[in-house]
Amino acid sequence: MTNSTTINPIPAFHVMTKPVGPICNLNCTYCFYLEKEKLFGETEQFRMSDEVLEAYIRQYIEQQDVPEVSFAWQGGEPTLLGVDYFKKITTLQWKYANGKKVTNAIQTNGTLLNDKWGAFLAEHNFLVGLSIDGPPDLHDGYRVDKRDRPSSERVLHGLEILKKHKVEFNTLTVVHRKNSQEPERVYQYLKEIGSGYIQFIPLVERDADSVAKNLGLDLSLPPDLQRVERNRMVTDWSVLPEDYGEFLVKIYNAWVRQDVGKTFVQFFDVALGNWMGMSGALCVFSPTCGTAMALEHNGDLFSCDHYVYPKYKLGNIMNSSIREMVESKEQRKFGQDKLTKLPKFCRDCSVRFACHGECPKHRFLKTPQGEPGLNYLCAGYKRIFKHMQPTMEIMTQLLRSGRPAAEIMRIVAEKPGLAPTQPPKRNAPCPCDSGRKYAQCCGKK
Question: pLDDT by residue (tens digit) across 308-330?
Answer without folding.
Answer: 989 999 999 999 999 999 999 99
